[in-house]
Amino acid sequence: MLARVGQLALVTVDTVMTGRYAAEELAAYALAQALFMTLMLLGMGLLTGTVVLVAQADGAGRRAECGTIWRTALADALFLGAAGALLLLPGRTIFLALGQEPGLAAAAGSTLRMLAIGLPGLLAFQVTSFLLEGIRRPHLPLLVMAGGNLANLALNAVLIEGRLGLPALGADGAALATSLVRIGMAVALALAAIRLPVARSYGLTGPSVPVPRLRRRLVALGISVAASQGLESTAFNLLIVMAGWLGATALAGFQILLNLTALVYMLTIGVATATAVRVGGAVGRGDLAEAARAAGTGLGAGLLATGLAVSLLLFAREPVLGAYTADPAVHALALPVVLLLPPALLLDCAQGVLGGALRGGSDVRLPALLYLLAFWGVQLPAAYLLALPAGLGVAGLVLGILFGCAAATLLLGGRLLLLLRAGRLAPA
Asked: Would you say 67 and 203 are in contact if contact means Cβ atoms under 8 Å apart?
């Protein structure tokens, strides 16, 4: 959970420091981050099979296979990161096609190019994190992430406002700082992994151990998870496009709310990953009763963590929003809408952990279709109708999130119960 919060803390610090610098810079950063996050989550989804296969191999006592899985996934991460970065280069053209005004499209396109530099490093760091979490060594990604956040804070202070003789880069500076930090974290975590005392027993050093159909298994798991995460993230990021149709103030305000949502959801991703590891280990041992207990425990832990975070957010909503922006109009727009976040965040947590439990049991294909139904069939139409024709604006966008997460929770929860009762969770 802490490692996932640290991942988004990079974006949160960028959002806060850019928002304090200028509202128009925050709007540009919001648009760039929306498109970047879509490709980032697609890449992470394609690589999620790493943690599932590592956990299952470890649970089955085949430790030496873990290093081969890691090295294969690491090569895939670097390739996907480079390909994704190239796709992000014509950002201005993409934003114009999405109906954004030319000045904002140009600024966001420039920021997007700076974010693209760090995509290979981000995915490489995530693959090594998956490895270490799969073998139950989650403290190393957390330590590296903590150092990365400190470095990002320092670089932002220099690059956003222009210090030490450098020009003020605004949103571009925040994006460049984060990209450099992500590359550094990828290198640092890989070096830390191969220096572990158990590195040789897990196959992290020395010759590779043959793993039958490895890349095919990684791709089979990854494509379905990427489809699920891509459908979800694209649906959320299209809400940012809708917010842009409402104006720069609405876009800046919605970016703050969405960043708060994503920050709390990082707790869910941490619990969901732990749940996938526990369920995957139990499935690898053929113990479906333990798999069911792991899924239930994960759901309870996720809801507890999210509930505590939501309570803190409600209690401190005014100073929290004040930290994000000095613009009175943006603050006034976001303040009442924060009250709609708690039920949406709790439902978002439930669907996220249920999805993790299904991934641990190698069930990824049908959930992708369920995500399509929930987020594209429910969330997007509801958000559009409530925000624009009904005139609720940003509040309508948040209500759309609530309805989409409710649908996903019901669909994924029903799927998990069906598989557990039928005893159909199995290794990949």
From this structure: yes
The CA-based dihedral angle spanning residues 43, 48, 51, 57, taken in that order and rounded to the nearest 10 degrees = -120
CA distances, 160 to each of 115, 119, 138, 320 (Å): 14, 20, 32, 21
209-250 tens-digit pLDDT: 878 888 888 888 788 777 777 777 778 878 888 888 888 788
| pLDDT for the residue numbered 426 | 65
Distances (CA, A) of 237 to 269, 303, 395: 18, 24, 16
pLDDT of 45: 83
The Cα–Cα gap between 69 and 218 comes to 9
The residues of the chain scoring below 50 in pLDDT are: none
- Global pTM reads 0.73
Cα–Cα nearest to 189, from 233, 132, 135, 254: 132
Domain boundaries in the chain? 2-420
Percent over 70 (pLDDT), the chain: 99
